[in-house]
């Protein structure tokens, strides 16, 4: 038997991911682009509805208030996505609401001065203004780190090895928003999961007019089928005698969004009144802004790979963080009840559809803005039951995680040092936030529980985030453990050419600003 050649048992590292139909600057036909943009809009609805649905009732808000917050969040999402794709990193990323802000916002909601307000609507308004003030102040962190290029300087300590746990846990760290939510209504969640996998993977070669319709529009088709099935179950009375919690998760008529939504309503800054400012609230919110920055950094790296682009140079990454800070400032001014981060599920959808086109994401931003103003139509789509979204998250979060693991191809995984760093960072990135979650569920407060509320919020927010813990562990170990003699093992020779804009000729194609703006903002 002939000896096996080395190239037959290994795969050479690839700067850009192969197999995509459309990369960052190539576009499908206009009809297909619009349909794909609408698909990204539908996917973004999950987080946009889930966050206000949880927080607004805690604040004393009504269904009308919830609908206005959802509309406002979608409106600002659309603006932030356009800003990011035009002037930020220019990667095809949807900039949506962030769960990282939940801990400090819940802390504000439980502030004793706000809890004493007896009128529910007045309490809602005062809480909203307090959250707005904290978000506005905290947004300065990303604006300063981004536009001063400080984040670009920090990113010099990153290597392919150090980024693996961060990008991987950007997806894996969201496991509690996957099957645990599917389990709230398995009769629609599991069929959705099976149908989405079947259409996007097993039937991806089914073509109509040379177009892989089932693969490209698996989300739209499977959501339509399962949503109709869920409506049939609701209309037939299948949930009539089921527990209240089951009805909330399974029925298609329990969101109370359509009946509460106005026909036309345009969100505007300071619509809830003048923001109020408190130093303690702002300090706690700053931790959420830092977490959002780290999670977005991981998501940008994943998006560049799934858009078949090169990794964003340090100054492009920093520029994107600066614009994301502007986005968080807009969140505070409009009152969206959360800050901004890159939508991980929409990054995953780039890989699932194999379309990494920037224009598709810009079209989806147009849908967000349009339907946020036409309340009834937007509320119709927003009434899709959460288990349907959760089923899709199971696939898309996993896909983003695997993109993180793919960066291992540029490192030496026969090195015990690299195995140690990767394993410890991944394990602690999952284990520490899980400890904080379990502790909070039992004690009704985080492990950090001193008299200084801002300090508690800061620590609890940082350690609730898997990518943040992974970055702290991985980057520290990677830059302190035998780092001088391990540059090649860490993947630095490959990484070095992408650290500066002029280090690789392809950077100009992917990351140059539009309208010839690079004349005024020359890349470094």
TrEMBL record:
The chain crosses the membrane at residues 38-58, 91-110, 130-150, 181-201, 213-230, 279-300, 360-382, 388-407, 419-436, 458-477. It is found in: Membrane. GO terms for cellular component: membrane. It comes from the Eukaryota. One of its GO terms (molecular function) is transmembrane transporter activity. Keywords: Membrane, Transmembrane, Transmembrane helix. Its main location: membrane. The keyword Membrane applies. It is a multi-pass membrane protein. The keyword DNA-binding does not apply. It holds the Pfam family Xan_ur_permease. Belongs to the nucleobase:cation symporter-2 (NCS2) (TC 2.A.40) family. This is Nucleobase-ascorbate transporter 2. It comes from Acacia crassicarpa (northern wattle). The lineage of its organism: Eukaryota, Viridiplantae, Streptophyta, Embryophyta, Tracheophyta.
């Amino acid at each position: 038997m002939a000896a096996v050649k080395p190239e037959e048992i290994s795969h050479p590292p690839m700067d850009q991911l192969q197999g995509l139909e459309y990369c960052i600057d190539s576009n499908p036909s206009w009809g297909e682009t619009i349909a794909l943009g609408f698909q990204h809009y539908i996917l973004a609805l999950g987080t946009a509805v889930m966050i206000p649905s949880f927080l607004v009732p805690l604040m004393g808000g009504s269904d009308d208030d919830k609908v206005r917050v959802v509309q406002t969040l979608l409106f600002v999402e659309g603006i932030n996505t356009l800003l990011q794709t035009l002037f930020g990193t220019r990667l095809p990323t949807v900039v949506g609401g962030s769960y990282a802000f939940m801990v400090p916002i819940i802390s504000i909601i439980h502030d004793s001065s706000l809890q004493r307000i007896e009128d529910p609507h007045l309490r809602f308004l005062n809480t909203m203004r307090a959250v707005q003030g904290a978000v506005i102040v905290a947004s300065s962190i990303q604006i300063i780190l981004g536009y001063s290029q400080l984040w670009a300087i920090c990113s010099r300590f990153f290597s392919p090895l150090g980024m693996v746990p961060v990008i991987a846990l950007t997806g894996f760290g969201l496991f509690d928003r996957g099957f645990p939510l599917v389990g709230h209504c398995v009769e629609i969640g599991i069929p959705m999961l099976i149908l989405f996998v079947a259409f996007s993977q097993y039937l991806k070669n089914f073509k109509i007019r040379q177009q892989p319709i089932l693969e490209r529009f698996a989300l739209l088709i499977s959501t339509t089928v399962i949503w109709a099935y869920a409506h049939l179950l609701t209309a037939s009375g299948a949930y009539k005698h089921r527990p209240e919690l089951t009805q909330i998760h399974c029925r298609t008529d329990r969101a109370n969004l359509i009946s509460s939504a106005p026909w036309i309503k345009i969100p505007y800054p300071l619509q809830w009144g003048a923001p109020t400012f408190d130093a303690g609230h702002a300090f706690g919110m700053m931790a959420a802004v830092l977490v959002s920055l780290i999670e977005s950094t991981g998501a940008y790296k994943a998006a560049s790979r799934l858009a078949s682009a090169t990794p964003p140079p340090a100054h492009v990454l920093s520029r994107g963080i600066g614009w994301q800070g502007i986005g968080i400032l807009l969140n505070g001014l409009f009152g969206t009840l959360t800050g901004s981060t890159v939508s991980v599920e929409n990054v995953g959808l780039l890989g699932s559809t194999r379309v990494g086109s920037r224009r598709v994401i810009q079209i989806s931003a147009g849908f967000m803005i349009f339907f946020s103003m036409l309340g009834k139509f937007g509320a119709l789509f927003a009434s899709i039951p959460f288990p349907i979204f959760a089923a899709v998250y199971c696939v898309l979060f996993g896909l983003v995680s695997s993109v993180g693991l793919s960066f291992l191809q540029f490192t030496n995984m026969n090195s015990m040092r690299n195995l140690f760093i990767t394993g410890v960072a991944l394990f602690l990135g999952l284990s520490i936030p899980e400890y904080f979650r379990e502790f909070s569920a039992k004690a009704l407060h985080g492990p950090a529980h001193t008299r200084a509320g801002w300090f508690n919020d800061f620590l609890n927010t940082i350690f609730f985030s898997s990518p943040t813990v992974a970055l702290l562990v991985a980057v520290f170990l990677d830059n302190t453990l035998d780092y001088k003699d391990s540059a090649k093992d860490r993947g630095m020779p490959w990484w070095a050419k992408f650290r500066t804009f002029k280090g690789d000729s392809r950077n100009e194609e992917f990351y140059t600003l539009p309208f010839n703006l690079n004349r005024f903002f020359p890349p470094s």
